[in-house]
Structure formats: C-alpha cells, structure tokens
Amino acid sequence: MLQKNRLKALAAGAAMSLVLYPATASAWSLEEAAEPYAGTTIDVVFLLRPGYEAAKEMIPEFEEKTGITVNVTDMPYENALGEQVRDFVAGGDLDIALIDLVWIGNFAENEWIVPAEKFMNDPELADPELDLEDFFPLTLDAFGSWDGRVYGLPFDNYSGLLFYNSCMLEEAGFDGPPETWGELKDEYGPSLTQDGQHAFALQSKRNETQSADSFARMIWPFGGSFLDEEFRSNLTSEESLTGLEFRQDLMQYMPEGIVAYDHAEAVNALAQGDVAMITEWSSFYPTLANPETSAIVDCLGVAPEPEGPAGRKPALGGFSLAVASQADEEEQAAAWLFIQWITSKENAKQYLDLGGVPARQSVYEMEGVAEEHPFVPALVESWQEGVPEFRPRFAEWPQITEIVQEWGTRMMLGEVSVEEGASEISERMEAVLEEAGYYDGDKPLLQ
C-alpha cells in the first residue's frame, strides 16, 4: 500500500505551509482574521453523538470572537451521507462537509470539497499554530486526505477499544480483560454467559455498523482484509474466512438478536450490566462513565481491542471537516476559520473534557490527562498501531458497503454459510470495481 508515501507527502505539505508566512506569525489572531466575515452564516451537518455535543458547547465562544454564525443541523449517521450528497448535487446551502473516512474519496473526486492548501497558504486565514504534524499521522491521512492532498482536518475521531465490566470479570475469576480474541471466546465466553447475562456484544446492525463495527473488526486481526494488493477481493482467503467463522462461533456468547444491535444497544447492554464486554468506539467513553447513563461507572474498565493471530488490529473510524466548494468565497473563508479553530491544539483539551475525542498528539501528552480520561492510553496505542485501510477508502465504498451489509447480516443469521457469503461479496464487490475502471487502468489501485 501507499501509506508511507502518503504520510511523507502530507508531512512535506505541512512543512511547506508552515514556512510560507513566518513574518505574520506573531501578529495573527482569530478575531482580526474574522473581521471581514462578521455577519456570515456557515452551515454544517452534525451527528447525534457525544463529540458533536461537545463542539456545540464550544461554538458560542467562536461566534462571539468572530461574529460568524455556525448553523448546525443534527441528524443520525445513517442520514448524513445522503443528505450531504443531495445538497452538493443541488448546489445547496452546506458550507462545511462532514466526511467519514470512507466518504472522502467520493467527496474529493466529485470536487465537492476544497483542498485545504488554499487556506493554509493564505496568511490572512492560516493560523500559524495550525501545526498539521501535531495530528496523529494515521488520523490526518485516513480522515482528512485523498490522493496526497489534505482536504479536511480530523474531527470526532474514533478508535476501537475494549470496554468491560471489571466487577463481572472479577466475580467470574478473571483479574483483567482478555489479551486475545481467542481468550475472549474460549475462556471468558463460557464463564460470563449465564443467568441471563452474556460475555460480549458485537454491534452488528444492517447498516455501516455491520460493515465497520462487526465485519471489518473480525477480518483484520485474523490476517484478512477486503482487498489484496491487486485490488481483488481477499475475503475468500483462509485468513478472512477464519475471522468470519470466529464471529459466528462467538455469537453463542452474545445476546439474542445481536444482528439488530447498533451502537446505542451495545453501549446500553454494557452500561446496564447485561453484557460483560463490548468493543466500541472511544467516543462512547463519556456515556459509559456517566452515572446518569451507566450503572457500571465504578466497574468500568478500558483496554485495547484484543489481539488476533495477525496481532492487534483495532478498528479505526472518524471524520474530518472540510470546506465545501459550493460555498462562496466569504463562506469558504469563514468555514475554514471555524474548522481550524474547533480542531486546534488550543481547544483540544476543552473538547476532550466536554466529551469529544481530538486527534491532537499534544493534548494526550499533557500532565494528568490519562488520569482524567482513563481511555487515553488505549486510544493512543491504537492510533500508533492502527490499520489505515480498515475499510477501503475509495469513492465506491458507499456501493460496496451495501453489499457487505446484506451478506454479512445473512451470514450471521445463518441464511448462508460464511464461504457462500464471502463469495457473494467478493463477486459483487469486484463487479463494482471493474465498472469503476480499476482493472483496466483507468483508475489507480490506491489513493
């Protein structure tokens, strides 16, 4: 893969942007930069998740400093892609794009978003303290870049973690969480599944949750992947099939109806003591640690996701904010000032304390942060060792995820065997990629 080359290109771009305006560094301020755009309104989509609630608490400060109004439309994740695509196709009102890491190819190739260099190279708009190198390289590459260019800055960033009920584990005779997936199934599973309780819940609802949180989470630790180096399906490989068979075996230690569990159901099952462990995004820590929403606050433990035969391959997810090309010049400038501010080093600690998960390395190096936020050590480890292509980031992913959702769900329900389901996904996925031109040289294999 081109991961190393992409990171070198991003680092070079960051260094270049930092030397373009050294003379103005000491004079720049957000208030002065925003003066020409006071009275401008910028529109953005937010999700119904803790990181966005944190940002909304911070927005009044930005509005007071700048005179720019940030108009937020809240919606569930399942609606966010379609609503934004319709807005961009129609030339609508959105000034900022909220981009899941698997949407960025679609947004960039359709030119719905503006490369960030336009703003980073403008000394009137570029905060000298932006410091792209302070973002975890994995997050800047996966969430904000495409084809060697930075489009968006990481915002609302996730790593998969193992959340567990330490009291349930201790009562069952365990002195800590499992280190491997094999231990979770073979040792913890039987001991913790009894009296109406279950050892584990794997959110697997038929939407992107099935593709990312269930299907992808199981193939990587076992050495599998969606695609091989030739961009052909790797889902029928021994490693991928082993991971998917493992998921089927693990279901005996999960609640009935697990295929209907989305994030809310999995988190609530742990929070109410119905299951002992879940693998979930780091952003749900505030929910599990809040006594108003969780009955296990005093028993809540956090660890990295378990290792598989191929090592520790934690889930990777998250979003970036990018400037929409359909916005006029004033709206674009105002949008960039907001994106730069909400993802800044200066605001990272406040965002973290309010329930967000910033991608800034510096905030996690602050004294006392790991003690205040116990999920931090596992989070940092995962971002240092994560899988950049946890889900393929090409523009055709929205089509392919529909295929994975259908056949991944049918596997779990026992309607088809793992081998049959993997073969169906492989055939249909390659048909999408062939039609898109990946196999005849019209498109490069990896961005």
The shape, in one word, is globular
Listing every helix as H and every strand as E from the N terminus to the C terminus, the arrangement reads HHEHEHEHHHEEEHHEHHHEHEEHHHHHHH
Over all CA atoms, what is the radius of gyration? 22 Å
**What is the terminal-to-terminal distance?**
9 Å
Percent range for β-strand residues = 5-15%
**Biggest β-sheet description:** 6 strands, mixed
Q: Superfamily at the CATH H level of the domain at 3-158 and 318-385?
A: Periplasmic binding protein-like II
Low-confidence stretches: 1-25
Helix share bin: 40-55%
Q: What is the residue-mean pLDDT, rounded to a whole number?
A: 91
Quaternary status of these chains?
A: single chain
Reconstruct the topology from this structure.
Elements: H1 3-18, H2 30-34, E1 41-47, H3 50-66, E2 69-75, H4 77-90, E3 96-100, H5 104-109, H6 117-120, H7 137-144, E4 145-146, E5 149-150, E6 152-165, H8 166-171, H9 181-192, E7 198-201, H10 208-219, H11 238-250, H12 263-271, E8 275-281, H13 285-288, E9 300-304, E10 316-323, H14 329-342, H15 345-353, H16 361-364, H17 369-372, H18 376-385, H19 397-413, H20 418-436
Parallel strand pairs: 1-2, 7-8
Antiparallel strand pairs: 3-10, 4-5, 6-8, 6-9, 6-10
